[in-house]
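Quick one: structure tokens for this chain, please?
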Amino acid sequence: MGTTRAGQLVELGRMAFVEAPLEPLRDGDLLVRSRYASICGSDLHVVNHGVETEPDQWAPGYPGHEGVGEVAESRAAGFAPGDPVLVVPPVPEARCFAELQRVRATSVVKLDGPLPPIEQLLMAQQLGTVLYAGRQHPWDVAGRTAAVIGQGSAGLFWAWSLKRAGAARVIVADRSTSRLAASAGFGADVTVDARTEDLTEAVMDHTGGEGADVVVEAVGRRDTLLQSIRLCRLGGRLFWFGLPDTNELVPIDFRLFFRRKLTAFSTYGAQSEPGLVSFRVALQHIRRGEIDVRPLLSHVVPVEEIDHAFRLADACEDGVLKVSISF
């Protein structure tokens, strides 16, 4: 049956490099030879904090869900060995940290036609989730002020999407100077270093004391989820995009939420969207050069060093924007 090189969660806080047996293919499956996979912020919450996971889910390759590669074997119509693909599985079934991964054909987008370097197309997974979220709750942001907490790949893509939709001012915050330096290229007008500056004060200073019209929390931390409410103007809108870093209840200031007449949204599920439309749109943005994702390929680490890769992504130092795995 063969084996595959893979990263595997072996205990909370530790990924290990393993050689693991391949999972047998079923009708409708593909065996994909991974070229690259990326570490998502939600992966850090799963691996380091045990968020929404149990040991019986810790298969080789889990919880990687951002991948690109080529079809090695097909049990599904429309796919043949050698086809380049974007792999976007739902997390419980995700195996993108494996060099050879079994995946349902319905969780794959074939990459046809002239292509940029395939590692750039890897970023279509995260961009697609942002586009999907925005399409579920479309806002008219033209001429308005938006604030984005967090400038990891999701936060950078939110800044880009909001600016592209016409936001007059996009205020972003992060604790990483390298991410803040990159954010201007994704549409940020104002950057706030959360280590040394008070984000609430900064947003109020740039909005005449009113607050932002739209606030996106793209970190998934208890403190930033709570803080997001304070950044919104009266009648403003919140999007809680980040997966919380805990299985415990997350407190909010409901009195302030109530008195400011806020509306909040949260959604996920781009991987289950019929036709994987949002991922296809993301791929087109990258193909056409409408967004430059090359800065996000800041650190690429071989799968043999996957535990180091996770520590690098978690520390977010040394110029890290996003950490990817190579095979």
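Residues 237 and 263 are 5 Å apart (CA to CA).
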